[in-house]
Design a protein that fits this description.
By secondary structure, the chain is an alpha/beta fold. The chain is built from 23 helices and 24 strands. A 6-stranded antiparallel beta sheet has the order 2-1-4-5-6-7. The protein has a 6-stranded mixed beta sheet with strand order 8-21-22-3-23-24. Helix 3 packs across helix 19 and helix 5 runs parallel beside helix 14. Keywords: ATP-binding, Coiled coil, Cytoplasm, DNA-binding, Nucleotide-binding.
Length: about 1000
Amino acid sequence: MAFLKRIEAHGFKSFADDLKIEFNTNIVGIVGPNGSGKSNINDAIRWVLGEQSVKSLRGEKVDDIIFNGAQGKAPLNMAQVTLVFDNSTKIFNSPFNEIQITRKVYRNSSENEYYINKSRVRLKDVQNLVMDTGLSKGSLAIISQGNVSKFADSKPEERRQLFEEAAGVAKYKKRKEESLRKLERTNENLTRVSDIVSEISRKIEPLAKQAEKAKNYIQIRDTLKKYEITLLVKDGAIAQEELAILSNNITKNDEIKTSLKLKISNHEQKLKFLKNKSYDLDKNINSLEMNLSNVNTLLNILDQQKKALELKAKETNTKDQSLSEIAKLEQDIQELLNEISHKKTIQTQETDTLKQLDSKLEELNLQKSDLILSQNNLHHTLGKKKASLDFFALNQEKQMQKNLGVQTVLNNRQSLYGVVDVIANLIEVPELYHQSISVVLGRNLNNIVTKTDKDAAKAVKFLKENRAGIATFLPLNTIQVRRASQEDAIVVNSQTGFIAFANNLVKVKDANNQTAVDFLLGRTIVCENLANAQVISKLIAAKYQCITLDGQLIKAGGAIVGGFQNQNNNSNLLKKDYNLEEINAEIKLLDEELINLNVQIDGFQNEINSIQSQIAKAELTANKLNYEIVDLENESQLLSTQYQNLTGKKIILENNEELNDIFAQYKANKHHQETFNLQLQQLRKEKHESLNEMQTLENEVYVFHQEDYTVTNTLNNDRLQQVQLENKVEQIFKRLVETYHLTFDRAKELYSKPLENEEEARSLVLKLRNDLEDLGFVNINAIEEFENENERYLRLKNKHDELAAALKELLQGIDEMDKIMVEQFDETIKQINQVLPETFRILFGGGNCQLRYNQPDNILETGIEVLANPPGKKISNLNLLSGGEKSLVALAVLFAILKVKPLPLTILDEVEAPLDPANLERFARYVRTFSQTTQFIIVTHRPGTMENCDVLYGTTMENQGVTKMVTIKLSDAKNKFVADNSTQSLTASLN
């Protein structure tokens, strides 16, 4: 069975029509006239087996191997050749018993398509398939006349390739070449990876420290978070409970205060009513007393009249009174009347004075009540102001706690010479710009200004030695003033929304510190709003930062920081002195006003006491005058009666009717006396009761005022505590939101578990805060960066190790392949040298031939020298041989190789052309000896070769440029050859 079973071609070179050549024998001859395309079969086989050189296929470009057209035949756009092999003996390393190898190429395309058993494959797959089968490029399988001539003329190193194919080391050599290329790539990769690993290893050490620091920071932060939030939740809950209790107490005390005010008002109304009633009672009592006095006087007169009438009745004669006694009575009566008039005048004055005093007393009481109300309001206002003062003081203390390093330096300014103050205390900012300046400066507000850098270094050393936190220092002698260029200032000055450069909006208390302010704010532009800021920032290519009045910031470079923000602590730093001074001033004014009120209240009270004393004295005087007037009037009445009796002006009762009339009047007046006494008794009782009730009410009003004062103080204290607790709760809520992004309710849900030891927890929180501050700057991203870099390092280190191992393995593999190639090559040469002499003698009819290394110590790269001595000749150089001898030497070597390593297929393309008939005959017969193990396809035009072929395929061109195949029976060819005895006749018969 032939190894190459079939060739199918279409469009390859001169094969315009579909070509199909069946090979059923082991020696096949391809014959035909020159230019008929017989060598195209050889080219087709070589092309399919992977030949890449178009010149080797006798072309200039790829399109030259595609049929280019002929008379009556249009050019084709594709060339395709298929070789079908019998693989029943598993010459190919494939499980299939038949192997089809196909190659296609399209016109105007350099891309080739390869197929094995109709499956698309790569060129490399085809090359790997035919490797070590003797069919690969450079092997002995396909030999042309040029190859034979070249063999003898080749250098020993070039000649070596032929023997490598024979030795079967080509695959090892190819693998070695691939391994060497891979080795080079691996070495390059290893070098590159080593450089990267080295670079990463340099980065990873500081990153590891940073990551460890960050992990420590996170651990401290998380622990702090756990304990601080738990404490904040507890403190907040307690504060809320206390607030609820306080709110309830305040509500109750407000109700009590309202009730007390109502009671005081009611009592004062009652007191006013009772005073009026008392005044009316006094008038009624006085009136009754006067009436009673008149009645008593009248009764006395009536009694005197009665006695006089009775006496007159007894006396018979009226006695004349002396004129002197009458004159005396007239004088006494006039004096009494004058005194009564005087007393009544005084009484009227006292009554008027009493009314005035009552009116003034009422007015003073009202004014006193107003002052007491003002006093209570002042107490409340003062309480709120003191609470605000406590809040600001507490806030300031917290700020100082947060900036331990800053506070430590400021507290030790006496020993740290050259420390000026923090920026916040060195500047004054108009309230309009508080927000913008506080956002721009941020923590820089706590930067400490020093006179020199040495002063700053001394302060840093002090903080470090005392482990007292950190601070930022601005040495006035070294910081560089940073201001905008004059050109930029001119440009932005004309823009809408531009306000000023920030350093121009800040007042520096001491001009010596202006450098520090310019350093911080000299390149910051204050704008009205964000839109203006964006325009200005673009205009100056974002060289300076722009800040809006509401705190939206465009940084230098273009980054925008903005959104909603509460008044921050930095803004509070700007406001703190102003607020504390203002509140202290207000408290001072309130204290002074309260003192004045107390003085006024005391003055009113003293005046009230004085007026009450005057009223009591006036009432006593008025009552005394009433009694005196009554007595005087009674006395005057008595004297008048005596006077009348003495002068005779009084009608003397001479009869009983007059006496009875006196008795009736006396009885009526006696009744009036009793009635007046009862009424007077009742009025005096009412007066006494009123006085008692007034005293009780006044005592109660006093108690109510005391209670109101106590309640007011309690309310003030409660409201102060309420403000403090509200501030505390607000700070807790703010701390939870700003620091931990938690609402209080959410924090309660997550951190409600009670702490075992609260005091230890609070101490731990303070310690953890200090620990965090001691850590200084922490790169949180270092953990991820370290993990990424470490992962990258490990990955690359692993890759480095893999590459190093691969490099070692490649070197070992190359060494092993070198060893195998040396062994196989040396063994093959030895085997060839064993059979070559005999083969040489058969082809030459004698002589000797040997192969020799030109570098015996380097078999891996040694060239092959051929020492050929034809019969009767002894030569040292193949170039001294004739052309036929050179060809015969090459064929001798070929056949020797075939003996050592039989090839499944050998294509001989006119290799015997230079031989003379005798040598040709020996060649042809010798080929036959290999036909059992090797399939020969011989392209020839020599009769001696033709007659030793089993089948001849003839090529002809009926149409110029188009090859046509003709099968020739060997017996017919031989008869024709015998008849014509010439090659030309055979060729002519084909035409």
